[in-house]
Amino acid sequence: MSEFDLIRRHFTRPTPSAVLGVGDDAALFQVSEGNVLAVSSDMLVSGTHFFPDADPYWLGHKTLAVNLSDMAAMGANPRWATLAIALPSVDEAWLSAFSAGFFALAKAHHVELIGGDTTRGALNLCVTILGEVPQHQALRRAGAQVGDEIWVSGCLGDAALALAHLQQRIELTEVKFAAVAPALHQPQPRVALGLALRGIANSALDISDGLLGDLAHILDASQVGATVELASIPVSETLRGLALIPCPSPAEEGSHAALLQQFVLSGGDDYELCFTAPVHHHADVVHRARKVGVPVTRIGHIVAGQGCVVRDAAGKIIKGASNGYDHFR
Fold first, then answer.
1. Which residue numbers in the chain have pLDDT < 70?
2. What is the pTM of this model?
3. What is the pLDDT of residue 66?
4. Strand, coil or helix: what is 38?
5. pLDDT of 114-127, one tens digit each?
6. CB 198 within 8 A of CB 292
7. Residues 47-90 pLDDT 10s
């Protein structure tokens, strides 16, 4: 099968909202009046972002989901995407499953694949996504104000817990792993929430590299500090249950608790939204989140100064809380 046969068979779909889609040297599309274009690219590399034997359907889903999450963080309506893919070989069954997962999520969010590139090489997936947002309603990192409440969507830590199980750093029962695996393999981009937060959130981003590491980007861009309450961070019943399991010795208990704390604060791969909003918008945040069916939780507040302080349930500062994932550290 040639490169062009591969593209036609697996990645060519109708693109009714584009002037010209897949098949030419560039795609053509008209941006609606009054909106600005939001553009983001994310790369997934075999062995770094996913296991080489990852299920191709859910890999197709995740390849697009991580990009949709960026649109959600900007309050942008996703519209078009390009896909650059390096393949070690042409595997029809793998391609069929991967493209099915990709296009199922694309259809759910009305995203059209309008172009990209294919080449032979180590498995590597890169999507560039384009969305629209009214010029003065885009959610940005540089907008947090002293006194803002800090919120997160969904639950944190499950993806890191699932990954730790696969890496044999922690052992889960089959039932518990099944409960947390979707967070790692099938993240749900919070696009509807991002759109709902227009006009009430002062800042936002998606949590991809861990809560503390990503929140630090908001703090740096906004030149403010933060206090986060560890006990307020939402976690699943599975992770909470593990935290309550007695350990045989104090040493093991300490390491076990520290590992679970790490999953929540800096585990990464959550793809939930972290955002700040004024206190007087508290009820609005709750109402809009409930309307789009996404749970949100207030976990702290923005303060004057620099950096982030994490406190336990007794108000004591937790020292040594690590930042998020960094590819080059």
1. 1-4, 18-29, 243-256, 320-329
2. 0.87
3. 96
4. strand
5. 999 999 999 999 99
6. no
7. 888 888 899 999 999 999 999 999 999 999 999 999 999 999 99
Contacts of 4 (CB under 8 A, 6+ apart): none
**Three-class DSSP category at 156:** coil
CATH 3.30.1330.10 location in the chain: 3-134
Q: Which pLDDT score is estimated for 5?
A: 76
**Residue 116 CB burial class (10 angstroms; 0-12, 13-18, ≥19):** middle
Pair 47, 139: CB distance under 8 Å: no
For the domain spanning 149-311, the CATH number is: 3.90.650.10
CA angle 225, 230, 234 (to 5 degrees): 110
In terms of C-beta density within 10 A (0-12 exposed, 13-18 middle, 19 or more buried), how is residue 16 classed? Answer: exposed
DSSP 173: -
Is 97 in a helix, a strand, or coil?
helix
CA distances (Å), origin 134, targets 76, 106, 137, 199: 8, 22, 5, 11
The pairing of beta strand 112-120 with beta strand 225-229? unpaired
Closest CA to 241 of 148, 172, 159: 172
Distance CA 148, CA 277 (A): 5
Residues of the chain with CATH 3.90.650.10: 149-311
Q: Specify the 3-state DSSP secondary structure of 145.
A: coil
User: Which of these, 6, 45, 12, lies nearest to 125 by C-alpha position?
Assistant: 45
Going along the chain, which residue ranges are E strands? 35-45, 77-87, 112-120, 124-134, 149-153, 203-207, 225-229, 272-277, 296-303, 307-311
Considering only CA atoms, which of 193, 232, 170 is closest in space to residue 73?
A: 193
Looking at the domain 3-134, which fold is it? Answer: 60s Ribosomal Protein L30; Chain: A; (3.30.1330)
Backbone angles phi, psi at 302, to 5 degrees: -85, 135
Q: 320 phi and psi, to 5 degrees?
A: 80, 10
